[in-house]
Amino acid sequence: MSAYWIPRLQIAVNKIALKVLRFPVPETIRGVDSSLTLCDEMAAAGLQRVLLVTDGPLMRTGIPERLAAHLRQRDVAVEVFSDVEPDPDYALVLRGVERLNAFNAQAVLAVGGGSPIDCAKSMLMCQATGKHPSKLTGVWLYHLPRPHGLPLYAIPTTSGTGSEATVAAIVSDRAEQTKYSIIDPKLLPIKVALDPALTVGLPPAVTAATGMDALTHAVEAYIGTMGTKETNAWALRATELIGANLSKAYALGTDMEARANMQEAALLAGLAFTRATVGYVHAIAHQLGGLYHVPHGLANAIVMPHVLDFCKSACTDRLADLARAAGIAVAGANDTENADRMIAWIREMNAAMGIPSTVNALREADFDRIIAHALTEAHGTYAIPRYMQKDDARGILRQLLATN
Ligand SMILES: [Fe+2]
């Protein structure tokens, strides 16, 4: 019997559950100024007290205050909770819950990248259940039943995490220096605005890292064993959009069409992975984030080619499909050649966008703990195409050392 029969069984059970369960898809409005339209719709829905959740860097762009002013003009009282930091942890989430309660909010508007949206999701789940966030981590199935929180509206300002389309929130455990997921369909925002004008100010490095995060979602959802016809189509379309637009958005941040297409790609990749799950790239990247605070997208971009080298033998045809979707397949080449092409293209994209191939902070002394957390995270939760042993993971980590 396979050494991995327990995680395989868990994935098989999840697959059956996925067939029965209906995952909601957030209502999405698109286009320049759709963020203001979303505010209009919140006011029209009768909301009178809204907590806007965002972070400090975004506050400096003036975007959250503009949205808050728009809501206030429509007689909606708004309080801004702008304390969100990268990789929100338990303490931050609990502070946010205090603000929610003190303000007596009727809804939350999350504005920002993955951190503010995930923080808002965690806050709402904590408030609804009255539980500490550490008691909410893991797959929702194991915590039945959980009440629905206040309605969540989301305006993503990066094009990567796809958090606006997922049933998951990532929360950091500072004591353990790792990240955990809270997974529940009730975490999904009810309404989302994809306003490309809000992403034109993103620095190229953030465009690159978040874009590669979106690509990782599409790739891991597609090569995993839990994809459906629907998630596969979303993942391929996201890959196609990223292939055609990420370099453009990186080179010219004001290219509104490229920005809008990257937002669409991030949303589609989010929809794909929230059902089909991710894989070892995320499992390892989460540890690099938890331990060394490597930004999530950057960690994924660095780890992805190595994990794909490892998985390739089990998903050659799938990687070749992705190469065709990205528009980089070689005509007349076989699947193995195109799978290699896909992995090479990811390395080329990283290099062209200034993404390093190693992690400066990584220490060999941390390998055991990174591997233990990564394999625990992945096995039984992610639909892995090829299972990894500790030594396989160790081999990948060695290649990420800056001494290489
Ligand atoms: Fe991600």
Automatic annotation (TrEMBL):
Signal peptide: none annotated. InterPro entries: ADH_Fe/GldA, ADH_Fe_C, ADH_Fe_CS, Alcohol_dehydrogenase_Fe. Keywords: NAD, Oxidoreductase. The keyword Transferase does not apply. Residues 207-399 form the Fe-containing alcohol dehydrogenase-like C-terminal domain. The keyword rRNA processing does not apply. It comes from the Bacteria. It holds the Pfam family ADH_Fe_C. Belongs to the iron-containing alcohol dehydrogenase family. This is Iron-containing alcohol dehydrogenase.
